[in-house]
Amino acid sequence: MTPLDHDPLANKLALLPGDPLAQRAAATVLRRARGVLIDAGRPAAKLQRFWSGVLLPAVILGCALSYSVGALQTIERIYVAGR
Amino acid sequence: MGAEDTDLVARLRRHEPAAFDDVYARYQERIFRFLLRLAGRRSIAEDLFQDTWLAAARHAGDLTEETDLGAWLFTIARNRFRSHRRWAFLDFAQRERLAHEPPDHAPSPDRLAEARAEASAVTEAFARLAPAHREVLLLAVVEGMETAQVGAVLGLKPDAVRQRISRARAELATHLETENAVNRALAPGVSR
User: Fold this and answer.
1) Domains detected in chain B
2) Which ipTM score applies to this complex?
3) Exposed end of chain B (fewer CB within 10 Å): N or C?
């Protein structure tokens, strides 16, 4: 049983425009998406995603942490020297 | 999730083009119809449809064994639409143009004159719904998804989904009433 069998609202909503995509356009989208899928499966693409998704954020986070720690230590030294 | 979907997910994770073809054949009509009804404009729906499938292809390797394929694809499509809406809001030139351009499904003057057609009233009433209400009705009522699946797509708990469906139904009923009243007033032969 589909939702249209028992729900008057569903019957109304079934009247909304829903013409399918032209076959040629659908085939073009599929061809492009297939190309992307094949590219994404290549080892170089996996390496690139690992770099941009894991390594690069880790490097940036590490730099930010190290900078913050250094800055705090410097402020502490200045404060202690000033007393 | 059926065994067939589980198998498709496993093959997609291995980037098998044949698996992608199967998924596309199974879901492309539903995804396009969803976007068309959500966006209300065919040209926008076509762009979003392509973006959706390109994103699906790009992230196929990130799927997990438990991924619900249908919910995953509808989530991508919905996120593309939301992203489009955000950018369109900032695109003042486009907003200006679209404000003066009727939606694809707006009735022509002739059609408006014979405006008793129920389809026209439903289309107009639906276009006036808030996007959050449009999407929940499309997923739950038109696509017939389970509450949990709708929740997965929209990022809501089942109770919140049920509440939103109820509000969307009420809003649509109000708009439908208004549309029908307008249609009755505009119908030929109505004495004033």
Assistant:
1) 1-104 (1.10.1740.10), 105-192 (1.10.10.10)
2) 0.75
3) C
